[in-house]
Amino acid sequence: MKNIMLIYPPGRVYQRGEDRCQGNIEDSAATTMRACNDLGYVAAALMKRPYRLFLKDYQGERKKIRHLIRDVEKFMPDLVFMSVTSATIFGDLETINRVKAMMPDATIILKGAVFFDADPKRLKRLDLHHVDYLIGGESDFVGAELIDAHFCMTSPENIPGILYRSGGEWKKTDFAVWDENLDALPFPARSLMNNKLYTRPDTGEPQATISVGRGCPSGCIYCLTPLISGKKLRQRSPQSVIEEMRDCFHTYGIRNFFMKSDTFTMDKDWVEQLCTQILHSELSGKIAWVANSRTRPLERETLSIMKDAGCWLVAFGFESGSAESLERMKKGTTVADSFRAMHLAKVLGLKVFGFYMAGFPWEDMHHLRMTEDLIFALDADFIEIHIPVPYALTELRTICACEAPDGVDELGSDYHRSPALGTEHLSIEELVRFRRNVLRRYYFRGAYIKRKLADPDLTARAFFRYVAYAAKLFRNVCKFK
Asked: Of 41, 84, 222, 265, which one has the greatest count of Cβ atoms within 10 A?
């Protein structure tokens, strides 16, 4: 029986399972770590095979490299499957080299958006001499298949979205193929996961991530989703989603959920079907959940039935207060759409997490001030400001590369430490300072604190959670540089 180790390595905390954003949790204003479902999906498929499995989120448990080394010595893996991000890739490779030095015969598989359709020049920047396979597509569909192919010594050439070694070179398979049947995926192997690590931000209760849809037909110039998951919206059946929620609720005692989908509200009929089934199930009135949404299309009826079915927070990508920036980033929404979405949510009693971006190549301080004005005008319950990252193969990357004679690369950087060389008018230092100052003024203003303290839903537990977030935020953004 082969030993398979699936890990998030030690280090800074990132959303390793979120290939679209790969968010930096430690430096964020209010985001929380989500479950390691990418590992969980692969593990769930492997549980049906004759393998011995070990799954651990070292970064989430705040474990050090010595803990990983100890576990490697004890478990003796034949294969290590590790999730990486563009920001952490260099440290991740150092970690895998340490593991390989201990287990020279172990097979190494790395998974991450950094490898999506990667060209040879990009791969040469990375120390991959100890790595056997790279997964840049949707690993939950192909991870177990690739592992089976390796141990059965069959060619992986027909497995989509991967790179494998052949004749000393990296060979790519088809990166433009996506599985349509999301219901065919097993539920993530939560029996192997430390579910207590992944919590609802305000109460600290365990929160499960439920992947409900893939793909996005929008054309935002900075986003990886249409590349990695395609432009066609693929959704699970409401019945499948309900069954996974039931499993979480009855088996693991989890009553809080993050509905993972870039376009959760785009198909209002699907949302109505899902929410109706929740309302007619034993889960009605016993669960709470959050979801991402675009500001357009968006109907009041959609948000209303979501609220009835247990939704308490909606995250909107408002992005910018500049009409020019929204148009040039190809967001497909307007500032008026942002105000309308915020109004609908407030009327219905839904809390809102607003996401914004500042630092596109054409932006100057006037654009940023319009975004700042929008941030305070909308007055969302939680906000985050990202500096755009020019990920490989995105249109933003092409724009940045044309403007930077020495090229631009996102490796080693994230939304809070962008690799871009600032904008045409602003330095990267000015963008970082803008983000810090706005977050500081927003969260530490008297009106915001008073509103939070007056929230009828505020519990003692939530109060202390907010104090902890405030302390972290103070450390991260109150740096007067």
From this structure: 84
